[in-house]
Write a structure and sequence with these properties.
Elements lengths: L16 E3 L5 E3 L5 H8 L5 H10 L1 H4 L3 H12 L3 H18 L4 E7 L4 E5 L4 E5 L4 E6 L2 E6 L6 E5 L7 E3 L8 E6 L3 E6 L4 E6 L5 E6 L4 E6 L5 E6 L3 E6 L4 E7 L6 E4 L5 E5 L3 E6 L5 E6 L6 E6 L7 E6 L4 E5 L4 E6 L6 E6 L3 E6 L3 E6 L5 E6 L5 E7 L3 E6 L3 E6 L24
């Protein structure tokens, strides 16, 4: 029937369908952009609009997201909302399309296993007896094969400012995760999962796996930690009670996992599938099957759309964006020629690092590659983002590099840039 006769009163929340005037049911995901917009006109609540967006295939197509969003904001009387969104996206895209330049480099003793940022630390003022300010230029660096020492580096200085030492005689870590007050890591030899309080240096044994631990994740609040292992299990740890909360079986080894920003769901990937579980009862609420059996190394929830999207990538040499509520593949970010080890999801861009020695920056809403940075001489294992507009990368070549995006190329430190000229971003 005529899409102008579609009404929100016929919306079936369970089956995600719209019923036309002719009693014909149309799935949300099969609506074209015009029909979707006409349906939107009858929806009275923003939550209904956003829910419909997340399952509409047309919304996921490159280039159409901005057009639909602008029209909807204007029609709903939210022109300022649409304008602000486009201005923020325009600034982000324009900045990350500038040639990247090395701002500083730190030489490490061993291969870099993981970076964490931001790591805010209060600087103490001895005259007033109070904290002077919070330094947000700090990066925590974890090296491989050198014990459990955590290096804290101010990226504006040439040398590390502090080393957080682990227990003497301790083994190296096989995986770890950190938030501003805690670090959770796995012992490389006996598969123990250990919590260390950074402010006191006290360590607590949470439990252990039956085989080598391959991944660890922690939530921002420091209340939950997630670990994956060769023993075909994913385990959730309660960091307040220092015990295991859930033990979830998976079909194969899990190499990557993530905790939802709200702490309500967790996710982990194998070489066959990406699974999402509820935290309070361990029930699987989403399962996405991969097109080919390639191990997933990186799993991240979208912090800007935390209740909808999740990203995963690894040996398939790309990052895939999923709607884990509907199980649909939304977008693919391709271009790497090696294993994708890590990714960072920002407001408008996606940053990835790979075994092909490069870092790629994508437009998150279209999938276009804005820039490729030939960052290191060996595998780029990890990357993090520092505000405003800084990327920090760690590699097997034993270096950590900070990348700026200046308006002009001001020196010989500029990286080799192989940008792809994608579509221009226009402020509506």
């Amino acid at each position: 029937g005529d899409p102008r006769h579609l009404s929100s009163s016929y919306m079936d929340a369970k089956d995600e369908k719209v019923t036309t005037a002719g009693s014909k049911s149309i799935p949300w995901q099969d609506l074209d952009t015009r029909s979707f917009f006409m349906v939107y006109m009858f929806l009275g609540h923003l939550s209904d609009v956003l829910r419909a967006m997340r399952v509409c295939k047309a919304w996921a197509k490159a280039g159409e997201a901005e057009v639909i969003w602008a029209r909807m904001c204007d029609r709903a009387g939210w022109p300022q909302l649409g304008k602000v969104w486009f201005q923020q996206k325009y600034v982000d895209i324009c900045t990350f399309k500038r040639p990247a330049q090395v701002a500083s480099t730190l030489e490490c003793k061993s291969s870099v296993l993981k970076l964490f940022a931001p790591t805010p630390v209060e600087l103490f003022n001895w005259r007033t007896g109070r904290a002077a300010k919070v330094n947000r230029n700090l990066v925590a660096i974890a090296e491989a094969y050198t014990g459990t020492d955590l290096i804290i580096w101010d990226v504006n200085k040439a040398i590390p400012i502090r080393v957080d030492s682990g227990e003497e005689g301790s083994n190296s870590w096989s995986a770890l995760a950190i938030n501003p007050s805690k670090v959770v890591f796995a012992d490389s030899k006996d598969a123990r999962v250990i919590l260390r309080e950074l402010d006191t240096g006290v360590s607590y044994l949470l439990g252990k796996h039956n085989s080598t631990v391959t991944s660890v994740a922690i939530n921002k609040e420091g209340t939950l930690a997630l670990s994956g292992s060769y023993d075909n299990t994913v385990r959730l740890w309660d960091l307040q009670k220092y015990c295991q909360k859930l033990c979830l079986p998976v079909s194969q080894r899990s190499w990557g996992g993530a905790i939802h920003p709200s702490g309500e769901v967790i996710a982990a990937g194998t070489s066959r599938e990406l699974c999402v579980w509820r935290v309070h009862d361990g029930k699987c609420v989403g399962k996405m099957f991969l097109a080919s059996e390639r191990t997933i190394m990186a799993v991240k929830f979208d912090t800007e759309e935390p209740d909808t999207y999740i990203y995963c990538g690894g040996y398939d040499e790309k990052i895939t964006m999923w709607n884990y509520q509907s199980g649909q593949r939304v977008r693919t970010f391709a271009g790497h020629t090696g294993v994708v080890f890590d990714c960072v999801v920002l407001r408008s861009v996606l940053i990835t690092c790979s075994r092909d020695k490069s870092v790629k920056i994508y437009d998150k809403h279209t999938g276009l590659c804005l820039q490729t940075i030939a960052a290191h001489t060996m595998d780029v294992k990890t990357c993090v983002y520092l505000k405003p507009f800084r990327i920090v990368t760690g590699s097997f070549d034993r270096t950590v590099k900070v990348w700026d995006f200046p308006k002009r190329n001001r020196g010989p430190g500029a990286a080799e840039n192989t940008s792809t000229n994608g579509g221009e971003c226009t402020v509506m």
